[in-house]
Q: What sequence folds into this?
C-alpha cells in the first residue's frame, strides 16, 4: 500500500481494542514505571528528571546484570560452561550500555546540577545495593558494606547471601579443578566471604591454559571472557569518575565520601588479577621469574 499525504494506514490485523487483551503498557506496567520519576527540588528544576532517569535506568540494567551473572555462576557450578559464557556475553553488552549512559549525564553542567543537588540530602549511588551485589558476585566482597543497608531488610538479606556464596570466579576455578587443571587446594578451600586477592600459585595454572590453548579451548575462551568483564567494569568506573569530576570537581559526595578521590581508589580494585598477571609470563622461559639455583 502506497504512502499518501505522509500517512501510513493501519494493517488490517492490527489490534486496537485492549479492554480484554494484554497491551504493551499493561505487560510492562508502564503506569507504575513512568510514575516513578518524582523530582524533589523546589521549584522543580528542569534537569532533575535527567538525573533521576539516568540512575533509574542504571538500576534496571544492574538488575539484569545481576540476574545474568548469578545464572552464569550457577551454570559453572553445574559444569555448563558454554551456557555460562552466553550469559557473560550478554553482561558485556549491558556493561557497554551502562558506560555509554554516562555521556548523557555529562551534559549536566556544574551550574545546573548545583541548582538542585542540595535537595538530594544524603542519597548517593554509593548506596546502590544492586551495584554492591554485582561486585560481590564478581568477587570484590566487603562485609563492612552490609552496614550501609541495615535499614533495608531486603537489600541486607541479598548482600548477606551473596557474601556467603562463592563468587563467579570461585566457581570458575572450581570448574577448572574438576576438569583436570591443577588449581591449588587452598584456593578451592578459601573463605569465600573475603575479597579475592592475587594468588601467585594460580598464575602457572592459567599460563598452562593459555600456552596450550588448542587443547584447552573452552577454558582459554572463558579466561578471555572474564578479562573482558573486568576491563568493561573498569571502563565504567573510569567514566563514572570523569563524569563526577566534570560535574562537581573535587567536592565531597552527597553520601559523605570524598567524591572523586574515593572513586579514583576504586580503579585499584580487581576481580581476576591472575588473568592479567599471566600476560607478563606468557612467552617467557618457565623459570625466568625465579632466582638461579
A:
Amino acid at each position: 500500500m502506497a504512502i499518501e499525504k505522509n500517512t501510513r494506514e493501519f494493517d488490517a490485523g492490527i489490534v486496537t481494542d485492549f479492554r480484554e487483551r494484554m497491551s504493551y503498557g499493561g505487560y510492562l506496567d508502564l503506569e507504575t514505571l513512568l510514575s516513578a520519576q518524582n523530582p524533589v527540588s523546589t521549584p522543580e528544576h528542569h534537569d532533575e528528571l535527567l538525573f533521576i532517569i539516568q540512575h533509574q535506568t542504571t538500576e534496571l540494567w544492574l538488575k539484569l546484570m545481576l540476574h545474568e551473572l548469578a545464572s552464569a555462576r550457577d551454570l559453572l557450578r553445574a559444569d555448563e560452561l558454554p551456557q555460562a559464557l552466553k550469559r557473560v556475553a550478554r553482561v558485556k553488552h549491558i556493561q557497554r550500555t551502562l558506560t555509554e549512559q554516562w555521556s548523557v549525564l555529562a551534559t549536566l553542567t556544574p551550574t545546573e546540577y548545583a541548582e538542585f543537588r542540595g535537595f538530594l540530602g544524603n542519597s548517593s549511588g554509593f548506596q546502590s545495593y544492586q551495584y554492591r551485589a554485582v561486585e560481590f558476585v564478581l568477587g570484590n566482597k566487603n562485609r563492612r558494606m552490609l552496614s550501609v543497608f541495615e535499614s533495608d531488610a531486603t537489600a541486607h538479606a541479598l548482600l548477606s547471601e551473596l557474601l556467603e556464596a562463592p563468587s563467579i570466579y570461585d566457581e570458575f576455578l572450581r570448574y577448572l579443578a574438576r576438569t583436570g587443571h591443577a588449581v591449588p587446594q587452598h584456593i578451592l578451600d578459601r573463605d569465600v566471604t573475603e575479597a579475592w586477592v592475587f594468588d601467585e600459585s594460580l598464575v602457572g595454572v592459567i599460563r598452562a591454559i593459555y600456552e596450550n590453548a588448542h587443547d584447552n579451548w573452552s577454558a582459554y575462551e572463558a579466561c578471555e571472557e572474564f578479562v573482558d568483564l573486568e576491563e568493561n567494569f573498569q571502563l565504567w568506573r573510569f567514566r563514572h569518575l570523569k563524569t563526577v569530576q566534570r560535574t562537581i570537581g573535587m567536592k565531597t559526595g552527597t553520601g559523605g565520601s570524598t567524591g572523586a578521590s574515593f572513586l579514583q581508589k576504586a580503579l585499584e580494585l580487581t576481580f581476576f588479577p591472575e588473568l592479567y598477571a599471566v600476560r607478563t609470563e606468557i612467552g617467557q622461559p618457565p623459570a625466568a621469574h625465579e632466582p638461579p639455583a
About this structure: The chain has 13 helices and no strands. The first helix runs from residue 24 to 28. The mean pLDDT is 94. Residues 75 and 151 are 33 Å apart (CA to CA).
